[in-house]
Design a protein that fits this description.
The longest helix is centred in the C-terminal third of the chain and has 20 residues. The protein has two domains: 124 residues, N-terminal domain of MutM-like DNA repair proteins; 124 residues, Helicase, Ruva Protein, domain 3 (Orthogonal Bundle). It is built from six helices and ten strands. It holds the Pfam family Fapy_DNA_glyco. Keywords: DNA damage, DNA repair, DNA-binding, Glycosidase, Hydrolase, Lyase, Metal-binding, Multifunctional enzyme, Zinc, Zinc-finger.
Length: 272
């Protein structure tokens, strides 16, 4: 699933081409991708892109009339952007097509889990999603985490995935953050000290910043728009490395599912 760095990469990639472009036509092929409370996506026609942003894992496209198209890629949603006249024929997984003066954009999702919403009230829409702080928000402090982690007996790996606490972290980066912190993913969140919370904040920002600089992590289910591949998978220290030597101490990495999510860690560096 695309996480914060991948979504940020998509935002930056599309912004370079679509800023100030006007949607001339839109073909929604799978209406179920649109949230029930959304305005009809056909209302996007004749709107001009003025803003490209992100909140957690949500992409936000702002238009000239102060309306917003919000997109959640879920597991395998992808935008493919082509110069007009160079676009391929739609496939069975092409669920949305829109055209501007210079470009044609295809939205593909093999699993149809993506969600679109057109809204005139972005703040109210995002508030309904109960998103926590952004990782780079100055309000994200150890005091904030200690308060949110208090009485939480679930594993810290699971709590890092809770979008109501910190928005944007998914399975890949949760493993990477905990490896960088030398914190065992099975630790109860309520057992973390102020110092450990400070480490989580520091390493969350460092890991995500580095991933953004490298264009995210390209895995089987994710490549960026314009077929731009991320490079952060080369830098992975934990995710997907079960059975391989730890990059710090050479101990064999171990893994198991925690609350249904595959998790990998070093049993020596990340002791319980």
């Amino acid at each position: 699933m695309p996480e914060l760095p991948e979504v940020e990469t998509v935002v930056r990639t599309l912004e370079k081409s679509l800023m100030n472009e006007t949607i001339e036509s839109l073909d929604l092929r799978v209406p179920s991708l649109v949230e029930g409370a959304s305005l009809p996506l056909s209302a996007c026609i004749f709107k001009t892109f003025r803003l490209f942003s992100r909140r957690g894992k949500y992409l936000i496209f702002g238009f000239d009339d102060a309306s917003f198209l919000v997109v959640h890629l879920r597991m395998e949603g992808k935008f493919h952007l082509y110069k007009k006249g160079c676009e391929p024929a739609p496939t069975k997984h092409t669920h949305l097509i829109f055209k501007t003066h210079h470009y044609v954009v295809h939205y593909l999702d093999t699993r149809k889990f993506s969600r679109f919403a057109l809204t005139n009230d972005l703040d109210a829409y995002l508030e309904s999603k109960h998103l926590g702080l952004e990782p780079f928000d100055e309000q994200l402090t150890s005091s904030y985490l200690l308060k949110r982690y208090a009485h939480r007996t679930r594993c810290i790996k699971t709590i890092l995935l809770d979008q109501s606490i910190i928005a944007g972290i998914g399975n890949i980066y949760a493993d990477e953050i905990l490896f960088a912190c030398k914190i065992n993913p099975q630790r109860q969140a309520c057992s973390l000290s102020k110092r450990e919370c400070d480490k989580i904040i520091l390493n969350t920002r460092a890991v995500l910043h580095n991933a953004i600089l490298q264009g995210g992590t390209t895995i089987r289910s994710y490549t960026s728009s314009l077929d731009v591949s991320g490079r952060f998978q080369i830098s992975l220290n934990a995710y997907g490395r079960k059975g391989k030597p730890c990059h710090r101490c050479q101990t064999e990495m171990v893994g198991r599912k925690i609350d249904g999510r595959s998790t990998v860690w070093c049993p020596k560096c990340q002791k319980v």
